[in-house]
Amino acid sequence: MKLIEINVYKVNMKMKNPFTTSFGTEHDRLFLLVEIKDEAGISGWGECVTSEQPLYIEEFTESSWIMLNKFLIPLIINKEFNHPDELQEIFSVYKRNNLAKSALDAALWDLYAKSKGITLAEALGGTKTSIEVGISLGIEENIDNLLENIRQKTEEGYKRIKVKIKPGKDVEVVKIIRSHFPDIPLMVDANSAYTLNDIDTLKKLDQFNLMMIEQPLTAGDLIDHAKLQKELKTPICLDESIHSYDDARKAIEIGSGRIINLKIARVGGLSQAKRIHDLCEQAGIPMWCGGMLESGIGRAHNIAITSLANFTLPGDTASSSRYWHKDIIEPEVVAVNGSLELPTKPGIGYDVNREEVRKHTIEVRTFN
Ligand code: OSB
Ligand code: MG
Fold it and tell me: Ligand 1 in contact with 56 (CB < 6 A)?
């Protein structure tokens, strides 16, 4: 594959409903898409899942725009590649910026699978033909709204409900949820909002039979997470803490958690995601694929990686209609009764609706 053209699209899409976490509220998604074309005229697509502000991670849409245009794309434009894994060494000259790197990695994986005539899932070594899907619900000011959301999503068949918590909106909220829904598969996500000083509050969550507590402490706090896990019965699931294979290896070694939420972008792309998958499989660490409020393009990559065997827990790959009035892929992603069929067409397996992409695009950069 010779990468003869790369387009970067800055896109703004209005979300159907605002989404609130311990770090803030998102109303719109301002993110990037990358399209890589080879000499055969095939296009591979990837999504840079940044937000406008660096609240979840240090990268943000404008920083990734610069990272891609000024540093990463010049390293690969007009170069020949046999396999997407080859990007790893080339990109390693620049530190971190995993979300930007991942967008190119994902696009090259799509291009690679399309040029081989196989699905992205097959290219990655995935074996499942359908996957189980959970849903992530934001913090609500009004508890009745949250209860109503949970009721609806449970009725739609989602296989796991995740609710966001933060200090002051935790134990009482979960207690009320459990009093209405004693048996649903339920978990919470703190997005790094606590410290070890909150250990008594976090311990109180043990009584609610939660599947896991996601990322209670700050990213990088592997040692404190290990201390906390020793005090909790509920498994800790790591999200923000895992940026690389070595983070996962160290977390597993010292017992920082018992589950990993793998986000392709956060670890720098599919090549790394696959390595971490294999490590977790060997270590007996269950995993699931987390979401970043993606458009259909990012979601398609999430669906493909979830076809690997060790994604044993339901992921965040909910239906397109949960996020968007109209998605930018065709067909849209539809979970039926909490399950999704893997697409069967080559590459990401969904067509990019260029007209919809155009409607949301505010700036494009073309390299050739
Ligand atoms: O922590 O998993 C998270 C969204 C944006 C940033 C971080 C997170 C999330 C979600 C939403 O939980 C998952 C989704 O439905 O895409
Ligand atoms: Mg999370």
Answer: yes
Burial of 12 (0-12, 13-18, 19+ CB in 10 A): middle
Asked whether the whole model's pTM tops 0.85, one would answer yes
Three-state secondary structure readout of 244-278: CHHHHHHHHHHCCCCEEEECCHHHCCHHHHHHHHH
User: In degrees to the nearest 10, what's the CA dihedral of 176, 178, 179, 182?
Assistant: 170
Is 169 one of the annotated active-site residues of the chain?
A: no
Sequential pLDDT tens for the chain (368 residues): 999 999 999 999 999 999 999 999 999 999 999 999 999 999 999 999 999 999 999 999 999 999 999 999 999 999 999 999 999 999 999 999 999 999 999 999 999 999 999 999 999 999 999 999 999 999 999 999 999 999 999 999 999 999 999 999 999 999 999 999 999 999 999 999 999 999 999 999 999 999 999 999 999 899 999 999 999 999 999 999 999 999 999 999 999 999 999 999 999 999 999 999 999 999 999 999 999 999 999 999 999 999 999 999 999 999 999 999 999 999 999 999 999 999 999 999 999 999 999 999 999 999 99
User: In the numeric block, which tokens belong to residue 290?
Assistant: 């987390």
Determine if ligand 1 sits within 6 Å of the CB of residue 57.
Answer: no
CA dist 8 and 358 (Å) reads 12
What are the phi and psi torsion angles at 65 (to 5°)?
Answer: -60, -45
CB 84 within 8 A of CB 90: no
Spatial contact of 176 and 185, defined as CB atoms under 8 Å apart: no
Q: Which helix (H) or strand (E) holds 79?
A: none
CA–CA distance, 34 with 253 (Å, rounded to integer): 36
φ/ψ of residue 100, rounded to 5: -65, -45
CB of residue 271 inside a 6 A radius of ligand 1: no
Q: Is 164 a catalytic residue?
A: yes
Which chain residues have CB less than 5 Å from ligand 2, an ion?
Answer: 189, 214, 239
Distance CA 311, CA 304 (A): 11
